[in-house]
Amino acid sequence: MSREAIIARGRRVILAEREALEHAGQRLGEGFACAVELIAGSRGRVIVAGVGKSGLIARKIAATLTSTGTPALFLHPADAVHGDLGVIQPDDVVVALSSSGETAEVLRLLEAVRRIGAPLIALTGRHPSTLATAADVALDCSVPEEACPLNLAPTASTTAALAMGDALAMTLHAAKGFQPDDFAQLHPGDRKSTRLNSSHGYISYAVFCL
Q1: Cβ partners under 8 Å of residue 76, min gap 6
Q2: Confidence check: pLDDT of 200 > 50
Q3: Which of 42, 62, 97, 195 is deepest in the core (most CB within 10 A)?
Q4: Nearest-angstrom CA–CA distance, 41 and 53
Q5: 121: nearest Cα among 100, 102, 136
Q6: Are 203 and 178 in contact (CB under 8 A)?
Q7: First-to-last CA distance in the chain?
Q8: How would you write the chain as a 3-class SS string?
Q9: When comparing pLDDT for 193 and 47, which is higher?
């Protein structure tokens, strides 16, 4: 492959993922508001579940929520049905990720989640699907196509799901009035400087890992 072809391929991937994000942003609506309100009104934690690439995105979403004032943890669906279901309590909110909405390990959680009584938010790329239909709120993370040349490897779809998770976390961040002091308390391993830019009216951070 020539250098020009390499660069062109890389650009096509980035443009495909940008299109996926634009697609997700255009469809974001009342369901998103319901999901934010559901989490904000919960007295428990957010339990984020997924397998494979969706599981990796779920881990990142849980980490972002936790570090910005919304307690969350990742639950692997396979471990859940072998004893880890005990982490889910009725006051929690379960967020389940599955691009197809038909992932067997995730679907096995549904009956248990209903029995426990925790509300369920689905992030899925297929509507209708078993997961989307079973959820209290289903957020549409579908994409026109993957960035993969074969349209197979999760690429644009995982980007869309990650962005949706970030949108949830940052909207909750704002709704809760999360402040720089709160951020500092949750990140004691970092040395931070904060500066109020009076001309633009925002807080900027410089973070230096010790």
Answers
A1: 49, 51, 55, 84
A2: no
A3: 97
A4: 29
A5: 136
A6: no
A7: 42
A8: CCHHHHHHHHHHHHHHHHHHHHHHHHHCCHHHHHHHHHHHCCCCCEEEECCHHHHHHHHHHHHHHHHCCCCEEEECHHHHCCCHHHHCCCCCEEEEEECCCCCHHHHHHHHHHHHHCCCEEEEECCCCCHHHHHCCEEEECCCCCCCCCCCCCCCHHHHHHHHHHHHHHHHHHHHCCCCHHHHHHHCCCEEEEEEEECCCCEEEEEEEEC
A9: 47
Residue 193: per-residue pLDDT: 42
Q: Which residue has the tokens 């679907």?
A: 107
Look at the pTM and tell me if it is higher than 0.90: no
Rounded CA-CA distance 22/146 in Å is 14
Selection from 126, 91, 88 nearest residue 110 by Cα: 88
